Amino acid sequence: MKKIFPIILVIVTGVIAFQLSCSKNISGRTDDLAPLQPQNDDINAGTWKLVLLPRPDTFAVAIPAATNTPGYIADLNEIKAYQHNLTGDQESKIKYWAAGGVLRWNELMRELVAKYNLPPYQKDDGTYPIPSSANPFAYPQFPFANPPYAARAYAYISAAQYDALVACWYYKKLYTRPAPYKVDSSVLAKVTPTDLPSYPSEAAVLAGVTAEMMKLLFPTEIGNIQQKLE
Amino acid sequence: MKQFIKILLCAAVALCFFPVQKAEAQTDIDAIMMDKKNFCIGPMYGHSSWKNYWEGTLKRENLNLGTVSTQMFNVMGNYGISSRLNVLFGLPYVKTKASAGTLHGKSGLQDLSLWIKWMPVETSLGKGTFSVYAIGGLSFPTTNYVADFLPLSIGLHSTNFSARLMADYQIGHFFVTGSGTYTYRSNITIDRTSYYTTEMHLTNKVDMPDVASFNFRTGYRSGHLIAEAILANNTTLGGFDIRRNDMPFPSNKMNATDVGVNIKYTLQKVPGLSLIGGGNYVVAGRNVGQSTGYYGGIFYVIDFAPKKKDTHQQSPANSK
Lengths: 230, 320
Fold this sequence. Notes:
Chain A is mainly α. Helices cover about 50% and strands about 0% of the residues of chain A. Classes of the chains: A mainly alpha, B mainly beta.
């Protein structure tokens, strides 16, 4: 008996040490991606062929205020004030989105598709209810994001993103507004700096078009999508 | 669903989720010790099946599964290092089947379980005998079976560490045993690069929540006959509910409360040979099948001690 105690002790200690040493934390493969490093600004992308829009200036974008106006300088100061007071959470959000807006919005789409890829439960009479876009919150929730629906959803969103970005680049080249960190060196570049004109913001354009499309495709998720947008 | 229960059971003998595995005598969950240098070994067969399961808290049937059944062929053994310290093992072969639908059943060798069972306290208390047991367990998959195919996968494929504290009190032939177990489960790797639980996971690793379980058994125990009633509960500490009409997933919150009976009879004419049998039924659950199970087995005690002793499994009460 006495000889056994040390053996038990060793085993118990080993088990505890093992548990402490192997953390159960799991991270996704894109959780810690480095910021996107564009190889090319594609400054002439505003001339690329469009899919849905007839012309890149179908949607008018107002001329930005000159960089020497008081309004613009006030905006720069506002940015600097925000940058001084960034929380860790905000910094990690910036890092998250710096990996690439197209990638992150695609991940969010995949999440919605996975969440809604559930067949409806049959009714008592053995027939199957059909999700209704007119009443998306009733069971079965709209949509049933089965592969055909998902494929169309990805296609619509990708085409809309592409056209929106072509239009964005069209106005970028038209207005050639330098980025705030080019105008005022005390503004920090929080993502990879480029020579790309900053107006209109490609991230804002992408977020706007993607979120609006998502709300159409997944109407019950408007609340969550709006949250991501903000 | 039940299958996963079964699976779970299988996965952790300690967990004993599986009705089949949980109830035999002389296991990690009862207050019986082998004598020094005695080795008890034998095969067991168990069958369990369910038609209804709990999808989250909603009880339902599934016409695409029909009745899901699990068979288990198990070899178990128990060796007495001393009368106060035993080591045990179990290795089941599991076979699953769904009576309807398109999902094929799976079969294969499941998880090897190893236990060390120690009785630090055995003392007279009132008119009876009181004993305390500390039990540590390890189980790990022996084959590369698929875990992410519930309810037809044969196990959950996690490596488990269990710690159990058990107390037993016997007066005459009447006894009560109660135990509590905490089971740590390792992460598992599944054959998908992403999956959805309550959110998207872009990884093939799955965090398996730990499990707490309680087991209470009482009845008649003498040298040749044990007849007991069992109440058991398993609670997953975390995990998530199956969504409406979704498939189950290994890290679901699988809870179950079940009742059962277990009988062990030691033949008087053939020393060392005993028969066991029993059954159980899940009375309440969450993300598991409402299974009914039964099992039976034959065990034989080989005495390696130089001097032949008469007993094989002795209860704490009559071992002193």
